[in-house]
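Hi support team,

I'm opening this ticket because the web form for multi-chain structure prediction keeps timing out on my end. I have pasted the exact lines I submitted so you can reproduce it. The total is 570 residues across two entries, so I didn't expect it to be a heavy job. Is there a limit I'm missing, or should I split the entries? Thanks in advance, R.K.
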Amino acid sequence: MMHFSARSAYAIYRREMARAFRTAFQSILSPVLTTSLYFVVFGSVIGARMEPVGGVPYGAFIIPGLLMLTLLGETTSNASFGIYMPRFTGTIYELLSAPVGVAETLTGFVGAAATKGLILAAIILTTARFFVDYQIAHPLLAAVYIMLVAASFALFGFILGIWADSFEKLGIIPMLILTPLTFLGGTFYAIRDLPAPWDAIALANPIAFLVSGLRYSFYGVSDVPIAVSLGLTLGFLAVCVIIIALIFRTGWRLRE
Amino acid sequence: MSEPILSIRGLTKTYRNGPRALDSVDLDVRAGEIFALLGPNGAGKTTLIGAVCGLVRPTGGTITAFGQDLSRDWRAARARIGLVPQELATDMFETVWHAVVYSQGLFGKPSDPARLEEILKSLSLWDKKDAQIRALSGGMKRRVLIAKALAHDPELLFLDEPTAGVDVELRKGMWEQIAALKQRGVTIILTTHYIEEAEEMADRVGIIRGGRILMVDEKRAMMERLGTTEAVIDLAAPLAQVPEALAAFPVELADGGTRLVYRGGNGQGRGRAEVADLAQALTRTGIGYTSLDIHDSSLEEIFVSLLGKEQEAA
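Hello R.K., no limit was hit. The queue was backed up. Here is the completed structure from your submission:
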């Protein structure tokens, strides 16, 4: 029989949100500052000398990629810290001893991460507006897509936070894998403008599909069809959910 | 005897690459009692609690709480169990109030600020409710953990080393608070390595060592059964052997015949009466003595001698 306690899930959600608001200064200021720096350098200074990409002015073209860059990094590290810190300090005892299963835990943690992702996206888009003019072609699709990506990477971060047994391991995946892949995933250029064989090689990078999907929702142009981007994101989300369900079932690193 | 509130059968836990932390533990805890699990560090006390509370996955055995099998009906059972961990593990930046609100919600209880106020007041934390937990003293932090564990009104409460690192005065206060919980009908299982604590509070005591329960009994029965009286009598002049007149007493000579040592009794006063008879017998036989020191063994000595025997047997 399937049980779900909405109260428990909400308690986790509210606590995670409160944790974010306690460090609101850092969680708002840091993306505002980073995004501003990117726009000053790539948007205004360099962007002014660049040709439009696929009909989109360069400054506007890089917005979805930059948004993705911050979103992936912040969501992953936020979610991984959210579960790693309780394990590290021992406060996880309460969650483990509560009448709470994987469904409530994920709804609380991932729901909060997705909410924070949306807030973060809103902050970045507002900041970008001060530097470049842009229109969002499919705002609803963009919002859904941002939430999906935030939820997926919150799940990914959750796995990371359970896997990591040191602060070093906690930081190593975002630093060594996510950031390089996002930079190389068409944040600053269109994949199809790359000379062969680099255009094909670049598409081996899953993050290129994410950036492309978000860019489609903004400007209606993309390197790969939006359905492929959405499918890949949903697939990644499903894989993460299955892994976490297995972790809860076996108690790996939680109940050893 | 009524149905036990907690029933453990053959509980075994072997950590990966580690020793056997629990070795086929059988234990029944009765509703409404304070049960003390007494044992040295590393005996398996925390693992035993963890297995019941869902922190540790048992390797084998069954745990039944409130008549429900924990491996199957863990949700229903856990909603009625509270845990106060040994470590002061709590989000230090959270306020006391938010911490207890979270606990209540996490355990699926509807929000009940009046009940939380009552709990915080009973633990003398109400005036600290808006303080961040990191700003509180160690004793207060432990009370916050108790408040969190009580926020869902558990019927079965585990206290893992509730007074570890707590000074004497606060320890007494903690004992009073635990006694008050028992008054309200909460069944309490506490672990301790302070024998004094078990002696002071528990209705029944279980002695655990090396992952095995060595003995479970009423505290009083344990003291009666294993308790002894020891008397040391300094003699005025050394004796070569125990005189015939004293042969009926469990006595022996020590320190080259200058001391007479009595060991006997039952922890219920028989020993003291016998020592009085012994003193009179000494006077009758004209053996002079200069001092007489007498004391009853405490739970502590019982514990030490039990562990000693266990070690010899091993």
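A quick check on our side: Chain B has two domains: 6-224, 228-296. Let us know if the file doesn't open in your viewer.
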